[in-house]
Amino acid sequence: MHPHGSWSYCAKRRDRPVGDQPRSTAQICARRRINHKQLRYPHHHRRKQQRSYRLGDYNKSFGSYENKDFLTTAIDYHISEKDQIRGRYIYNLADGPDTAAVLPVFWGTAPNRYHLASISEFHTFTPNLLNEARLGYSRYFGKIDAPYPAEFPGLGTFPNIVLEDLNFLQIGPDPNAPSGGVQNTYELSDNVSYSKGKHSFKLGFDGRKYISPQYFTQRVRGDYDYTNSELYLTDGVPDDGANATQPLQAQSPPITAMQPHSRALFRMTGRYLRP
Question: Per the structure, how many domains does the chain have?
Answer without folding.
Answer: 2
